[in-house]
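Example complex used in Figure S2.
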Amino acid sequence: MVERPMIGRIPHLRQNAFYGQSGGVTAVINASACGVIEAARQQSAKIGKLFAGRNGIIGALNEDLIDTTEERNDAIAALRHTPAGAFGSCRFKLKDFEGDRRSYERLIAVCKAHDIGYFLYNGGGDSADTCIKISQFAERVGYPLRSVLIPKTIDNDLFGTDTCPGFGSVAKYVAVSTREASFDVRSMSRSSTKVFVFEVMGRHAGWIAAAGALAADENNDLPIAIVFPEIAFDSARFIARVKAMVDSYDYCTVIVSEGARRADGRFLADQGTSDAFGHKQLGGAAPVVARMLSSALGYKCHWAVADYLQRSARHVASRTDVDQAYAVGKAAVEMAIAGENAIMPAIVRTCGEPYTWTIGKVSLAHVANVEKLLPREFISADGFGITSACRAYLLPLIQGEDYPPYENGLPQFATLMNKCVPKRLEPFEL
Amino acid sequence: MVERPMIGRIPHLRQNAFYGQSGGVTAVINASACGVIEAARQQSAKIGKLFAGRNGIIGALNEDLIDTTEERNDAIAALRHTPAGAFGSCRFKLKDFEGDRRSYERLIAVCKAHDIGYFLYNGGGDSADTCIKISQFAERVGYPLRSVLIPKTIDNDLFGTDTCPGFGSVAKYVAVSTREASFDVRSMSRSSTKVFVFEVMGRHAGWIAAAGALAADENNDLPIAIVFPEIAFDSARFIARVKAMVDSYDYCTVIVSEGARRADGRFLADQGTSDAFGHKQLGGAAPVVARMLSSALGYKCHWAVADYLQRSARHVASRTDVDQAYAVGKAAVEMAIAGENAIMPAIVRTCGEPYTWTIGKVSLAHVANVEKLLPREFISADGFGITSACRAYLLPLIQGEDYPPYENGLPQFATLMNKCVPKRLEPFEL
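Predicted assembly (860 residues):
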């Protein structure tokens, strides 16, 4: 294929693409990157260079464009089993055009300077909003740019997709860890710990917390109480529920979502700090709950806060999740070169049992700034467990193991060279 | 083999054995149980029934003796990949003869009533003490009892053995998790979190914390600072060390031992409660450290507390650790029937590189109530890292993976029937 010269604003056959990672990283966001890059390499007739933004959109603004064509095929293949963001991610939300026209103009200038015709952004609800705004601004100024969101969030709160890559693996981590820790506390309850409190992520949505319930099944009768962010926390009812479980089993495991809150809206644990999106930085609901139970019931309690461990736990990833993460990355490239714009490839569940899925697409207008909470019919009547419908939804998402290769006792992850192409523009002040 | 009648206090050819699990459980204590039970089944000429105490020594005192001969071979084999204590463990320390002669007399009465000639106890330093006392009391009252300690503790602080089963797997969990979480924070540092603080167990000894350093190697240049319990915590020096790492890498990972303490002996985090052995119940050093760094340096910090997750993480166990746990269980039975008493099978490192090991034995008098701390020469000069000698010691212990079988996305662990034999004595008040 002969490379064509850049011909102004008319889309030509072969253009470069931008790929960026945004927001909190996951165990499989690099599997999506792998899908994007491998698909782009297969589509070399349509896509010239695939640039990755160093730290997502910040890299686009700063013209820090990593030339992924410099990376070897085996390094790119290894991204499939590498957790976290290989190019750096960011927490950085573009304002509206009116509030920050300068940033939008800069993005278009960088795209023009590097002949970028495709904007592929790997993120969640906030990134969907970013994708739409960039797409709209490009259209407004007459620059042809196809914008595709590659879905990513451990929280599973993204609208328009059956599940969101990143969630299946954290769900598997939480289910596996809950089963293991429940066996532990069961061993100790006669003379020591009665309750293990396990704090998991999920700022507003209880999907991750719900996955803890999968630890129990017909072969594993484990008492588990879940504190969902969707259900206002009522300490008296909660304490009574735990007491009933301990009375009957001599122990129990409590899964508490970091986003658990009281009826008045206050989080159980509010560290008082906020991130760049204005979201409160949470953590520490588990010790609050453990102290509450010790004080009310006199039980010895242990507590854990998984924090980053849960979302980076590539060593126990769900094969289904890895496959889906790769597939949406690949599909994003194919949709972009097919001329789609302001769109997201989505996971579509074609059958529940046996579980089958395919890739569909959804307009970003339906995705941006909407949060998909756990529906009430997925939460048991008492508010502390999941229903069979929820179990039927969750269980397929944790199916299959996909171990990274180990050497010398440790998983081998890819660290890329991440060489940036020369800058063509003046520096930009963020 | 014809079963001989019990003939008073003269040891006869075939006697029953008692096995108990003690103290905090691990990912591989059941692998030791598997070794004990499978060896006992092979030695049916010498060992009649193997009883397991329900909740360790408490089961012996209460005459709650689980008949392990009722369990199927495949269930026993599955113990090898099942975390936690399949028969229940306990935190229960016998007093001296003088303080609690009643309990010792009861133990001997239970042994007599059930023709128990072997006392196999699976625990750490406190359990070594229990084994010795029981052995001494049996000798004093003329009851022939062979007492063997099967080493177990995640803390690796047991004297007389190169390493202690349970430690290798928690070390692997900590090394793997540290590598994964370091990749995560590295991705986020440009616009979000700079420091990830990871609290691990280790009340007095820094072995577990040291394992976090294995996450970095020649292929993984990751900045990691460790807060050891052996080094008095100096906040100014610590803050300066973290700042230097962040200045140079833009991020860092801090591993903090739950037992980290200041120069005056105060723990960084003291929850104010104690367990049945009189040890303080710790937890919460990570949030203390994270707040300290945020406040002193203005960094956004995330923190995790692994607690039970680390010691029950059978899904990422070290194959070396599993093999050693099984081997000491098997050896304990063989030593007991060979007539050994007040002894412990120990891991002996026969070669460092390539790593080879064998089973030796050590008198419990050398083991009881001694703590093996991390030697100063294993800690780097600045007090925040490990030396190459420490790395050479640790690395063999995390070698090899030993995944449990998965079904339906989850690891399949054994839950035994745990049927007790009929009681022959009056109830005993603990």
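Chain B touches chain A through 80 residues (CB under 8 Å). DSSP finds twelve helices and 15 strands in chain B.
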